[in-house]
Amino acid sequence: MPNFPQAHRTPIDDIDRAILRVLAENARTPNNALAEAVGVAASTCLARVRALRDRGIIRAFRTEIDPAAIGLPLQAMISVRLRAHTREQNESFRSTAPDLPGVLAVFHMAGSDDYLLHVGVAGPEGLRDFVVDHLTTHPAVAQTRTNLIFEQIPGRRYLTEE
């Protein structure tokens, strides 16, 4: 993901915030419907969306897939603590973790744990194999802690009406 140092220096206005709110609910909203929803011309809306992307405020448009629908019904959050806090160990883990089978997201953390992995697997054996085969064998990993996810409840979105 590119670094956008200018992204947060120019504040967003109410129209930008309204565009972001609509896109957060449905990133596939057509430009004409988006423009109508926020009360601007379609050409203005398109220019604003492009500017939000160029500034790094909109980082991506994604499809959210239900892991259970693709054979990964068991989800877990796995905390990972590295052996040492060197750039080499961080980079070693950071560069391999996103490509491990079943990894849905990787979070680099501050605090007692260094990373948090959101994983999806077919069942308990798959989760055990993931931890044993991919985490405990990684030379940078000192400790892991696994928490099962019973249910994922979406957040209320951070772009609320003010």
Task: List the main descriptive attributes of the protein structure presented here.
alpha+beta; transcription regulation; Tscrpt_reg_AsnC-like; Lrp/AsnC family transcriptional regulator; Dimeric_a/b-barrel
Polypeptide structure, described:
This protein has helices spanning 14-25, 31-38, 42-54, 87-96, 124-135, and strands spanning 74-82, 103-108, 115-121, 141-149. The chain is of the alpha+beta class. The chain has a four-stranded antiparallel sheet. Strand 2 (103-108) and strand 3 (115-121) form a beta hairpin. The longest helix has 13 residues, at 42-54.
Question: Topology of this structure?
Answer:
Elements: H1 14-25, H2 31-38, H3 42-54, E1 74-82, H4 87-96, E2 103-108, E3 115-121, H5 124-135, E4 141-149
Antiparallel strand pairs: 1-3, 1-4, 2-3
Organism: Kitasatospora misakiensis
InterPro entries: ArsR-like_HTH (IPR011991), AsnC-type_HTH_dom (IPR000485), Dimeric_a/b-barrel (IPR011008), Tscrpt_reg_AsnC-like (IPR019888), Tscrpt_reg_AsnC/Lrp_C (IPR019887), WH-like_DNA-bd_sf (IPR036388), WH_DNA-bd_sf (IPR036390)
Protein name: Lrp/AsnC family transcriptional regulator
Distance, first to last CA: 30 Å
Anisotropy-based shape: elongated
Topology as a string of helices (H) and strands (E): HHHEHEEHE
Helix content: 25-40%
Described by strand count, sense and barrel closure, the largest sheet is: 4 strands, antiparallel
Give start-end ranges of low-pLDDT stretches.
none
Structural class: alpha+beta
What do the pLDDT scores average to?
A: 91
* DSSP E strands, number: 4
Beta-strand fraction estimate: 15-25%
- Roughly how many Å is the radius of gyration? 20 Å
Strand line-up of the largest beta sheet: 2-3-1-4
Tell me the number of helical segments per DSSP (H or I, 4 or more residues long).
5
Protein name: Lrp/AsnC family transcriptional regulator
Keywords: DNA-binding, Transcription, Transcription regulation
InterPro entries: ArsR-like_HTH, AsnC-type_HTH_dom, Dimeric_a/b-barrel, Tscrpt_reg_AsnC-like, Tscrpt_reg_AsnC/Lrp_C, WH-like_DNA-bd_sf, WH_DNA-bd_sf
